[in-house]
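User: Please run a holo structure prediction.
Assistant: Happy to. Please share the sequence and the ligand.
User: Here you go; the ligand is 2-acetamido-2-deoxy-beta-D-glucopyranose.
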Amino acid sequence: MRQSLPSYIYSFMGLLSFCILCASSTNKCVVRREVADCSHLKLTQVPNDLPTNITVLNLTHNQLRRLPSANLTRYNRLTVLDGGFNSISKLEPELCQKLPLLQVLDLRHNELSQLSDKTFSFCTNLTELNLMSNPIQKIQNNPFKNQKNLIKLDLSHNGLSSTKLGTQVQLENLQELRLSNNKISALRREELDFLGNSSLKILELSSNQIKEFSPGCFHAIGKLFGLFLNNAQLSSSLIEKLCLELSDTNIQSLSLSNNQLYRTSNMTFSGLKQTNLSMLDLSHNSLNVIGNNSFVWLPHLEYFSLEYNNIEHLSSHSFYGLVNVRNLNLKRSFTKQSISLTSFPKIDDFSFQWLKCLEYLNMEDNNMAGIRPNMFTGLTNLKYLSLSNAFTSLRTLTNETFSSLAHSPLLTLNLTKNKILKIESGAFSWLGHLKVLDLGLNEIGQELTGQEWRGLENIFEIYLSYNKYVELTATSFASISSLQRLMLRRVTLKNVASSPSPFHPLRNLTILDLSNNNIANINDELLEGLERLEVLDLQHNNLARLWKHANPGGPVHFLKGLYHLHVLNLESNGFDEIPAEAFKDLPELQRLRLGLNNLNILPPSVFDHQVSLTSLSLQKNLITSVEKNVFWSAFKNLRDLDMSSNPFDCTCESIAWFVSWINKTHTNIPDLSSHYLCNTPRQYHGFPAMLFDISPCKDSAPFELLFMISTSMLSIFIFVILLIHFEGWRISFYWNVSVHRVLGFKEIDRQPEQFEFAAYIIHAHKDRDWVWEHFSPMEEKDRTLKFCLEERDFEAGVLELEAIVNSIKRSRKIIFVITQHLLRDPLCKRFKVHHAVQQAIEQNLDSIILIFLEEIPDHKLNHALCLRRGMFKSHCILNWPVQKERINAFHHKLQVALGSRNSVH
Ligand SMILES: *[C@@H]1O[C@H](CO)[C@@H](O)[C@H](O)[C@H]1NC(C)=O
Ligand SMILES: *[C@@H]1O[C@H](CO)[C@@H](O)[C@H](O)[C@H]1NC(C)=O
Ligand SMILES: *[C@@H]1O[C@H](CO)[C@@H](O)[C@H](O)[C@H]1NC(C)=O
Ligand SMILES: *[C@@H]1O[C@H](CO)[C@@H](O)[C@H](O)[C@H]1NC(C)=O
Ligand SMILES: *[C@@H]1O[C@H](CO)[C@@H](O)[C@H](O)[C@H]1NC(C)=O
Ligand SMILES: *[C@@H]1O[C@H](CO)[C@@H](O)[C@H](O)[C@H]1NC(C)=O
Ligand SMILES: *[C@@H]1O[C@H](CO)[C@@H](O)[C@H](O)[C@H]1NC(C)=O
Ligand SMILES: *[C@@H]1O[C@H](CO)[C@@H](O)[C@H](O)[C@H]1NC(C)=O
């Protein structure tokens, strides 16, 4: 009861404060600074108890039918009101009157069907109005007349059949008008002339079934910069018409994705000739035929997307006139190989010759046969070329393949996923500027003589991962000493152990990936001299033998001299040993991955040089102990640790230090409670290691110290200090015990009659009732048994120290009734215990019997009474049972203890 009282009080207080809250509040809005988020709360009314100084109120996803101005009056500082996803069907004109500062009003996904001239008449400060997804079918008169500051207006997903939003010129600051997904079928001059003073950056008309562009429709708009007409089923002839209507406008961006532009001719875009169009999107059109000179009208075009089309043929005049295009997207632009295997797209020589400004060309995911001798001729500014998955039969890269790129300042060439089998000598000799070459995910299988890379004078990164096989030679990389990144993952790397090392010329290498190669044999020269190496991936190899003690010639130190290594991955190599010196040269190491190996015991000091380590992983090894002398240095600056799934040995020696470190550290250790489990000892199997109780371990430190120092020269000096520290008697206790053991003293067992009492009972004053209750019945049962009970056997309750000493002397045994009270009782502590122990030393150890009435940890016992369970025989330590049935067994045990002879065995 005493213990449960405080928590009872707390829960009562909690209940009380909860009731105070629920009395005053019905909402669960989250208010942070001046933003109130009341979304997803099934509200039917505007909450009336938010701070009045909020500026943003989010009421989305509720069940509001109205936004009564009366309820919003108190929030008159609102600048943003988001009422989307409700059932609002009517707006009060007073709303904006009450919210004079409102700038953003969002009412998307509601049930507004009617807008009158009054609806927004007071909303003069609005810059953004969103009415998307409402059932508005018609706009009458001029509901937006007063929105002189409006920048964005969204009326998409309504039922509008016309673009007409007013009868007079208005919305002079509008920049974005969204009318997509309506039922607009025609663009007419008179239905757009309300925008006569606006300059629209975006006019979004996608997903309407527009069939008509009447004369002058776009000229009705003040200025039009961007028109979006995606998903509109516009045919070639309608697009031609559209472009004619756009002539002489300010149009810069035109998006016509997903229409029905199956072919283009030299007239399709002719209307755009007087414009400055810089962006054109013709993606997803099933475009099949590009007529010659189709784009001659677009000399200002910079960004051109033709992705996802069905182009059959590019001729040398298809792109004629596109002199300013910088970015051309031809991803999946060409005919996909259909049933007939011969239907490759045809790309004529010199097709790109006009694209003098082209910097970025994406031709991914196409179905081209190969590279023609002059395919890329004329691309004198090309910097990035992606040909990933672009060819069906680019089997061999010869010294001619890329000749058409000889005059391009190409920096990046992506050739992944092309089923390339072989790179011939000089294949890239045309690409002297190239920095990044991606050859990954092909089927290359060859010996690298070094001639393959001839001419790559500026190469920075080569990606060769995921190929069939690569056989190294001493000269494999001899001609590309500028290389800084080399990726050779899963290429069945052969001949890695050749001497001199194939990597020796790569003095500037910073990243090397040799993972997933099943490498079993390397020598200590492999990485010699790669002093700039920062990242080394060696995971998924078979390097275990190299670090074995028993390796002929000793362990192979293949990491030596990598002074600037930051990241090292050695996962999944079967390592079961690490030489003590393995990481000695890696003072800058920041991330070390050693997971998925068979490591158990690591040499002390193995991580001593890893003072910069921030991330260490050792998951799924066989580590049982995490000891200070191995890990202290590695853990010093650690931010992330993964040691999960190891079979931890939950004993003081093995993990006490680790557990105490975990309790103190800020290091991020994921899955700590679920994946760090004890394996041994048996009673802790499956128990979370972090819950291991280290308090009994703490005292082991002084003993360790004693052991270590007593072997040294200073032992005598320390002995004196300890003598004082342990208050003398303790030393003599051990001394006496030792003497008894060494000299094999016989028992001083006087006959039972020589003692007046069977036992002297030491207990706290507060426990006297328990003692009385349990010991006097025993005396009654057995007349020969007589205990010395202080309250009864001392005269008039006077506790004379002398009397105590004498009584103890006249008792055969001494019983300690150990409770928390006893530990706190000053007389017991100072005197009686001291004396009893003295006697025990003089007599024998099993003259003392400890009866525990409650669970007392050993360290507390030691601290309070200088006693330890370990000093006594197990049959002299009794626990008072919790279950009544076991009380008999307890009495039996006590009798055995009382009857046992006082002896040291
Ligand atoms: C807004 O009001 C709340 C109390 O209603 C107050 O705690 C907070 O400081 C106020 N914020 C500002 C910026 O005035
Ligand atoms: C209001 O909340 C919804 C859902 O949580 C969120 O999508 C929307 O962006 C929020 N509106 C504002 C103005 O922050
Ligand atoms: C909203 O206003 C109406 C009418 O003024 C009032 O009856 C209602 O209690 C108000 N609701 C809240 C939540 O303030
Ligand atoms: C618009 O907002 C400004 C402050 O930004 C305010 O001074 C002005 O009164 C508001 N206009 C109206 C008509 O309420
Ligand atoms: C367009 O092509 C046709 C032939 O297909 C040609 O007769 C006509 O002159 C061309 N027009 C322009 C403007 O190039
Ligand atoms: C390409 O290699 C062939 C031999 O395989 C050689 O005859 C030819 O001169 C080389 N061409 C270039 C441009 O190096
Ligand atoms: C090459 O293209 C593939 C596919 O688009 C991409 O995943 C890869 O990152 C690219 N390589 C480089 C170096 O950009
Ligand atoms: C290696 O890098 C250094 C410094 O960045 C540079 O001066 C040197 O030219 C590079 N070496 C090669 C072979 O590119």
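Confidence is low (pLDDT under 50) at residues 1-25.
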